[in-house]
Amino acid sequence: MCLGVPGRVLEVRGPVAIVDFWGVKRETRLDVVDEPVEAGDWILNHVGYAIRKIPASEVGETLALYEQLLQESGIDLMSADVRSELEATAPSGSGDA
């Protein structure tokens, strides 16, 4: 199973956005996202690519579900997938974009 991880767009630099994932900033490609993205928008990230812009009406519910998922991590396969997704997009070195 593959999950997209939600993040808030901080800045857009052409085809790349700087996105905040729970305080961790990462570069995310915008090449395949379904509509234009700008600072303040929320996206779903999958291995460094924004795959979908989250509609404003769904942001609260989406974030609540992910917070619950991360809190209940234990041996939950979905939370392991979210954590591996965040790790997969991490640049080598500092941890921030």
Counting helices, strands and paired strands, the structural category is alpha+beta
What is the ordering of alpha helices and beta strands?
EEEEEHH
- What global shape is seen? globular
Helix content: 25-40%
- Regions with pLDDT < 50 over 5+ consecutive residues? none
Biggest sheet descriptor: 5 strands, antiparallel
Strand order of the largest sheet: 3-2-1-4-5
Question: How many structural units, i.e. domains?
Answer: 1
The CATH class is identified as Mainly Beta
Q: Would you spell out the secondary-structure blueprint of this structure?
A:
Blueprint: E1 5-13, E2 16-21, E3 24-29, E4 42-46, E5 49-54, H1 59-71, H2 77-88
Antiparallel strand pairs: 1-2, 1-4, 2-3, 4-5
Characterization of the model:
By secondary structure, the chain is α+β, with helices and mostly antiparallel strands. It has a single domain (5-88), classed as SH3 type barrels (Roll). Helix content is 26%, strand content 33%. The protein contains two helices and five strands. It has helices at residues 59-71, 77-88; strands at 5-13, 16-21, 24-29, 42-46, 49-54. The protein has a five-stranded antiparallel beta sheet. Strand 1 (5-13) and strand 2 form a beta hairpin. The longest helix has 13 residues, at 59-71. It starts with a strand and ends in a 9-residue tail after the last helix. The model has no long low-confidence stretch (mean pLDDT 82).
Quick overview of this protein structure:
By secondary structure, the protein is of the alpha+beta class. Helix content is 26%, strand content 33%. It has a five-stranded antiparallel β-sheet.
